[in-house]
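Re: folding output
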Amino acid sequence: MSLKTILIHPDPRLKKVTDPVGAITPEVGKLAEDMLETMYDAPGIGLAAPQVGVMSRLLVMDCVKDPEVSPRPMVLINPRITWSSEDRSTYEEGCLSIPDQYAEVERPAEVRVEWTGLDGKTHEEEFAGLWATCVQHEIDHLDGKLFIDYLKPLKRQMITRKMVKLKREKARL
């Protein structure tokens, strides 16, 4: 396993719609493993392939935060939301590609998602709470959308300027 470099906004790859994953190959499995390791190391609760520069419809997540509860790493290949609740919930979201920036985003409180697993089978599950927010946030990444795209233009520009400055500072190191 190896840690991947997480792209920082603004990066044009973060704004592109990703391509569906074809066959579930050993390379796809290795990518998923590396992405989970990278996500846990960051630390984060979700990571989408375009965030590590891979333009494929693949995401990983694990929203278990309680140290007393076993982790639940999930790999979702070609995920799609098949149902969203009318109820809404608001979470203060952050993103590994937009470090140290948080904002409240309103989304459906519950969603049903269908995806292909590493086993090649179709899976379906309903997510609520943090899991629902996370899976929607990561699927947005696969569609070239960031959580800041939900914000008012001024707040979005302010965060983008901070990220440009951060990238400049990192480039100097």
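--- second protein (sequence, then structure) ---
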Amino acid sequence: MRLNQNPDVLLMGHPLLFQEQPQVAVGDITSDDFQHNLEILKQKQLSTLGVGIAAPQVGWPARVFSMGISELNRSRYPQAPDLPFAFWINPQISDFSKNTCWTWEGCLSVPGMRAWIERPESITAVGYNERGERQEQSLSGFAARVFLHELDHLNGKLFPMIVEDKSLIIPNQSIEHQEAWAEGWPTESAHNTIRGQLSDVR
């Protein structure tokens, strides 16, 4: 398929977001339509200020996502470190740490909400880049977090489906006023962690 120039971001409830996405034929990666779709995906990520975006979020049924953080798109996670822009095609996790960390996650497909989510602190990721070349990277901290969030999309999962406790889901407007929260709410670490920072305790 070939995406239009400005696809809508699909919202939670759309059936495509709940489906496991199909593998990409490696030989298709360098085709004109696939390269066009990669560029549209990247531009949509940047225009929506996403730190990552997965193909199904723009109506493209494929195991593809883009990720990257710079001054162009940092505003939703102001404390997040720089992360070079990258495409991941047919991504997989070959290893992950036993150590975990927590942070506030949001999602372009779940507007108006954030949740305090636990994930592995570091991973080894494998897949293909936009040139059809195999890539393998060790990712840690916020980079690992973004990768795992986007990989969830390719497996039909959104963050409200994996949050440990529904009391850890809050409105976006609330997180703009952490200084006014009740002491220790919803947890001590969540109370004190700014978007883009990580905590090693719940």
